[in-house]
Amino acid sequence: MARVKYVSASRVYTKNAKPAVDALDLEIKDGEFMVLVGPSGSGKTTALRMLAGLEPLDGGSIEIGDRDVTWVPPKDRDIAMVFQNYALYPQKTVAENMGFALKMARVPRDERERRVKEAARLLDLDDELLGRKPKALSGGQRQRVAMGRAIVREPQVFLMDEPLSNLDAKLRVQTRSQIAELQRRLGITTVYVTHDQVEAMTMGHRVAVLAGGQLQQCDTPRQLYDNPVNQFVAGFIGSPAMNLQTVPLTEGGARLAGTIIPLPTAVRAAASHAGLSELVLGIRPEHLHLTDSTGELAGEVVLVEELGADALLHVRLTGGGDPIVARAEGRKPPAPGQEVRFHVQPDDVFGFHPMTGARLAG
Amino acid sequence: MTAAPTRLVRNREPGPQRFREMSAQVGWGIFTWVVGIAFFLPVLWMLLTAFKPESAAETWPPKFTFSPTLAEFRLVFAGLGPFLTHSVIATIGSTILVLLLGVPAAYALSVHPVKHWRDGLFFFISTKMLPIVAAIGPLYVIALKLHLLDSVWLLIILYTAMNLPLAIWMIRSFMLEVPKELLEAARLDGAGRIREITGVILPVVSPGLVSTALICVIFAWNELFLALNLTTVNAATMPMFLISSVPQEGLYIAHLSAAATVASVPVIAVGWIAQRSLVRGLSMGAIK
């Protein structure tokens, strides 16, 4: 077990192009479950592959434990990786697949068998499955074999590259918790890449949000949700996404669709300090509370998305502007066409710089 | 769910649409049969003629009723021995060599491409551009100086050189199909270059290797030009045997047919046996 440290690590695929990973500084603590999340092209997979040794660095360095591994070949980094499409050797049996790395490391046969059996037991893989070829396995079983191949190595660090993306929705949720539970039990430092922010929030001890090759924010899921540092993180974390609209600033707050939304003092101070006349207003769907006629925001429901436990209302505000999304109780949501009013707590309102996207707050 | 009732309705009253579909299908069916038979007819004729006595072989119109005889086959087998041996040695020897040289070459041009791999690839195929007739003179002189004229070794070397470019191109394309993640997993698992080839790549491309080998076997088995010009007795191959079964005078069609049948059988047999692998190999890109 070990900590992992990226020190200004960069990767440039083509000269003069924007780096795929741009001077990444990130420290992953010993035993931590770190999730790298971001949209496609954000550099999250490249960052993982740099740690694996599958991508060379064009700048900076990477440390595992106290060792600089920047130029250490993959096999000597004491890591194990789970690939998105599992990359199981098709001609080898499950047991051979799981034991291959140990065989390469010249681990004696009985020791190898013991460790494969142990990993199989840990992952609920029957003995009968061990003799099968990957082709004869279901998607979920293949995924577990890929996990098993990583576990038998007892590495310092687990690397996982979207290991759940080939599973169906139900199995994905199930496996998600199994992986998190397994990681907790084994206590092995894990770096996990996903584009799915729900996976990121539910699995990671901490989550690093990347965009355009740059680290946006690295924090606990709760902190990312409550205190996003910029507009990108605010819009990326949370489902459905935060409502973000550029609105003019007024005396007491911001004017959204003709209604004055009161802003927290800190936001107002930051905005006036920056000399702004408008700002990007951010309100999470779950912070738009349906009320009676006293609510300040009025609009007409154009679409209702029933999720069961709750419902998402797409609302066209009376004063114009882009539609907003609000989360409402699932039992008796308003019908499309119905007039609704919302109340917003001033503390739930985020403000972002319209140019830089940075959070306006104390 | 929706398809079943539609078909039911169609079955009850075949409309003009259905009729057109059916007649098109029948038309294509007939066309395919005609083409197939046109291709197969000469082979069938060869086979039939091989069982005819020489006197019945060259009649016009051809006779389809005759008393079959194995006389010509007996004659063919009597003189076949050395030719068959030379062909088998040259074919198998060169094919093994091609695979031994082609696999590393293809690896160096695909999985871990060397510098200037494009040039290398082009070089290999460019050796096939020169007509072999243009090279026969120098080849003859070289073979003469090396005392390799009329030797099976010469054929093994030449057939290897002849098939290697194609084999490299084929094996390379199969290797390109090996998923990148598989090679990366092998690297992470600590497999070196040799292990990567033997343990990961070869098992995946093995159907491709079989089809490559088969094509090399066919080409080497059927090669006539080099054998004709560079061998006489000690290394004469099956195609040479066919030529030698044409006498200066007299009837020979039945004899030639019997010899041709015998010469075709091994290739067809190998093709038949390797059929599944061949199809799998040649369509490797299609399967995941």
Per DSSP E runs of 2 or more residues, the count of β-strands of chain A stands at 20
- How would you write the strand order of the largest sheet of chain A? 6-7-8-3-9-10
The main sheet of chain A comes to: 6 strands, mixed
Radius of gyration of chain A: 24 Å
> What would the average pLDDT of chain A be, to the nearest integer?
90
Structural class of chain B: mainly alpha
Structural summary, described in words:
- The complex is a heterodimer of chains A (362) and B (288).
- Chain A is an alpha+beta fold and 362 residues long.
- Chain A has 10 helices and 20 strands.
- In chain A, the strands form 5 sheets. In chain A, strands 6-7-8-3-9-10 form a 6-stranded mixed β-sheet, sandwiched between helices.
- In chain A, strand 17 (310-317) and strand 18 form a beta hairpin.
- The longest helix of chain A has 18 residues, at 169-186.
- By secondary structure, chain B is mainly alpha-helical.
- Chain B is 76% helix and 0% strand.
- Chain B has helices at residues 3-12, 16-50, 54-57, 71-110, 117-126, 132-145, 152-176, 180-188, 193-222, 225-230, 238-244, 253-273, 275-282.
- In chain B, helix 4 (71-110) packs across helix 7 (152-176).
- The longest helix of chain B is centred in the N-terminal third of the chain and has 40 residues, at 71-110.
- Chain B is flat.
- The two termini of chain B are 30 Å apart.
Nutshell version of this structure?
The complex is a heterodimer of chains A (362) and B (288). Chain A has ten helices and 20 strands.
